[in-house]
């Protein structure tokens, strides 16, 4: 049997191992990814098994890491780059948005840059400043980048496989507070296309759309709402660029209500684009305005306050109640 119970962290490790074993052009680069195995141990044991030429410990220089990966991709390699924490990506932002994202268009399609940038993101681990950011909207806004985030072990394994095989640059956001959540993984059955949303729970009264770390919260909210006689559908977006609007539309045409949930601040967040598009597409189906739940428009707070900042069960259920009250 190929079915196993595995944590998201272990699924990512196994996926990267398979990628290295399958294609000698796949490289892993980043701070402490080799001997240490990464601060979250996602790359644990890979340098030992594949050597320092395939799993490369880099200097603490994110711009240099991504810039080097771009050069390697130009030479035919498929680098998988780790940004150690979400808040560390900004020194590399210029390389990502002005080089990595633009090269395909700049060369009129002649040059491809198959680079995966792995970013552990989001809060909930009690970390210090710059370790709990959710910058996905900054990258989803940039043409030429594809942005994804798994919420479970199966998606973590298969989406990483698909990202490494992609000829387009992929920003791969990993929900760090979910690394140790376990789920079923079938290593022989590909679940679906990389940028296709999935229905994590069916329902008839309202649709919750989320991705990454908030999918679990939405599933818990749907279970709690069921005890009150409410039937909630949960759509796991999986991809923030491109967005599978067709899947959301199909769900909303059935439930007629939509609440979008993400950890990132609501202001200018991914939920704003989803709300606008679905309002355009489903105007005559909606029985309530599209509501959004997310973080506040403030710098990420100290660890003692992050439970107040992060959207939890109560805030999601409050939005559900407000929508159903229309």
UniProtKB/TrEMBL annotation:
<dbReference type="InterPro" id="IPR009014">
    <property type="entry name" value="Transketo_C/PFOR_II"/>
</dbReference>
<dbReference type="Pfam" id="PF02780">
    <property type="entry name" value="Transketolase_C"/>
</dbReference>
<protein>
    <submittedName>
        <fullName>Alpha-ketoacid dehydrogenase subunit beta</fullName>
        <ecNumber>1.2.4.-</ecNumber>
    </submittedName>
</protein>
<feature type="domain" description="Transketolase-like pyrimidine-binding">
    <location>
        <begin position="6"/>
        <end position="181"/>
    </location>
</feature>
<dbReference type="InterPro" id="IPR029061">
    <property type="entry name" value="THDP-binding"/>
</dbReference>
<dbReference type="InterPro" id="IPR005475">
    <property type="entry name" value="Transketolase-like_Pyr-bd"/>
</dbReference>
<dbReference type="GO" id="GO:0016491">
    <property type="term" value="F:oxidoreductase activity"/>
</dbReference>
<keyword id="KW-0786">Thiamine pyrophosphate</keyword>
<dbReference type="InterPro" id="IPR033248">
    <property type="entry name" value="Transketolase_C"/>
</dbReference>
<keyword id="KW-0560">Oxidoreductase</keyword>
<dbReference type="Pfam" id="PF02779">
    <property type="entry name" value="Transket_pyr"/>
</dbReference>
């Amino acid at each position: 049997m190929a079915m196993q119970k595995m944590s998201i962290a272990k699924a990512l490790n196994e996926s990267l191992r398979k990628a290295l074993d399958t294609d000698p052009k796949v490289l892993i680069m980043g701070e402490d990814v080799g001997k240490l195995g990464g601060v979250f141990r996602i790359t644990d044991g890979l340098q030992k098994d594949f050597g320092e030429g395939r799993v490369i410990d880099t200097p603490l220089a994110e711009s240099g890491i991504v810039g080097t990966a771009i050069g390697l991709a130009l030479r035919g390699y498929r680098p998988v780059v780790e940004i150690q924490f979400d808040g560390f990506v900004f020194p590399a932002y210029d390389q990502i948005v002005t080089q990595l994202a633009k090269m395909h268009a700049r060369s009129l399609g002649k040059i491809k840059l198959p680079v995966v940038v792995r970013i552990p993101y989001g809060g909930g681990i009690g970390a210090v400043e710059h370790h709990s950011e959710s910058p996905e909207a900054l990258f989803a806004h940039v043409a030429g980048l594809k942005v994804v985030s798994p919420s479970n072990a199966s998606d973590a394994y298969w989406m990483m496989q698909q990202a490494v095989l992609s000829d387009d640059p992929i920003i791969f956001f990993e929900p760090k507070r979910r690394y140790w959540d376990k789920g079923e993984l079938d290593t022989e059955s590909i679940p679906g296309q990389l940028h296709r949303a999935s229905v994590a729970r069916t329902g008839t009264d309202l649709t919750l759309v989320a991705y990454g770390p908030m999918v679990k919260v939405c599933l818990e909210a749907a279970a709690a709402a069921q005890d009150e006689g409410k039937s909630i559908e949960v759509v796991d977006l999986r991809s923030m660029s491109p967005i599978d609007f067709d899947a959301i539309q199909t769900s909303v045409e059935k439930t007629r209500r939509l609440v979008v949930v993400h950890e990132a601040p609501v202001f200018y967040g991914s939920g704003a684009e989803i709300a606008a598009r679905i309002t355009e597409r489903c105007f005559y189906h909606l029985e309530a305005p599209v509501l959004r739940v997310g973080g506040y428009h403030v710098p990420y707070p100290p660890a003692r306050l992050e439970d107040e900042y992060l959207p939890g069960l109560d805030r999601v259920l409050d939005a559900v109640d407000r929508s159903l009250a229309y």
